[in-house]
Amino acid sequence: MSFEEFQNRARLFVVGALEPDEMAEFEKARHEFGARAEAFIAECYSLSEAFALSLKPAKASDQIKARLMEMVKNRQTD
Amino acid sequence: MEGIQREDAEALSQLYDRYNGILKALVLRVIHNEAEADDLLQEIFMEIWNQAKNFSAEKGKPLGWMVTLARRRAIDGLRKKQAYARAEERLQHETEQQPDAWVHNSTEEEILDGDRRFLIQRVIGVLPPAQQQAIELAFFRGMSQREIAAKTNTPLGTVKTRLELGLKKIYDGLKELRDEL
């Protein structure tokens, strides 16, 4: 697999669109390209961020944060 | 994120304040149910708290990691509750009400402000509709290439090409916008 093809696969990988039969080949190329591959994959996460940031933020219920912090507090005291 | 890795609850509180709106919007986009989205949001932040030790700044920014985690949980939630049919109906209803759902809410004020959301929407919005649709179905619906091909009655190879071309265009567009974002 060329690095250009790996780049195409990496973009599919970060948005969860890589088919199971493509995954093994992708992982093999990822291993072969090493640090260069990991650096590129890290950059590709800008795609996931962008899709989330393209949406208008939604307001969560006020109770959610209170429940969350209570759960964390309980976890810490266990 | 470092604070959360040290199990500092105040750090989680700050992270929640900063990102809950973004993550809630993402979850809501996937499952189309306000109450379920709130429940999932709580679970997602709890998972962030529990899994923070696995986050590595070398592998990307915290937001990318959180979005990946939130998306996976939302899609799992959607499948677990077998809500596909109901979400389908809601999505259909929403699409009818707002045909161009992804490119939305771009008010004049946002344009003047050079708002980040507007800039990203502009990058996505220049893609041909078929590429936008393929990416939307993959990212927000968790569909595989084969499922997209079946749903859109399109050859698998065409779906793959649409995804690859669309994602590359967005990736390149975001790189050009890096300073503005």
Number of helices of chain A: 3
Structural class of chain A: mainly alpha
Percent of residues in helices of chain A? over 70%
Helix content of chain B: over 70%
CATH homology-level superfamily of the largest domain in chain B: RNA polymerase sigma factor, region 2, helix turn helix motif
> How many individual helices of chain B?
10
> What is the H-and-E element order of chain A?
HHH
Provide the CATH topology of the largest domain in chain B.
Answer: Rna Polymerase Sigma Factor, Chain: A
Q: What string gives the helices and strands of chain B in order?
A: HHHHHHHHHH
Topology of this structure?
The complex is a heterodimer of chains A (78) and B (181).
Chain A: H1 3-14, H2 20-53, H3 62-77
Helix pairs in contact in A: 1-2
Chain B: H1 2-5, H2 9-31, H3 34-51, H4 62-80, H5 84-97, H6 108-113, H7 116-125, H8 129-141, H9 145-152, H10 156-177
Characterise this structure:
The complex is a heterodimer of chains A (78) and B (181). Chain A has three helices and no strands. By secondary structure, chain A is mostly helical. Chain A has one domain. Chain A is elongated, with a radius of gyration of 19 Å. Chain B is mainly α and 181 residues long. Chain B has two domains: 1-97, RNA polymerase sigma factor, region 2, helix turn helix motif (Rna Polymerase Sigma Factor, Chain: A); 104-181, Orthogonal Bundle (Arc Repressor Mutant, subunit A), CATH 1.10.10.10. The two termini of chain B are 21 Å apart. Chains A and B meet through helix 1, helix 2 and helix 3 of A and helix 2, helix 3, helix 4, helix 7 and helix 8 of B.
Tags for this model:
heterodimer, A: 78 residues, mainly alpha, 3 helices, B: 181 residues, Rna Polymerase Sigma Factor, Chain: A, Arc Repressor Mutant, subunit A, 2 domains, 76% helix
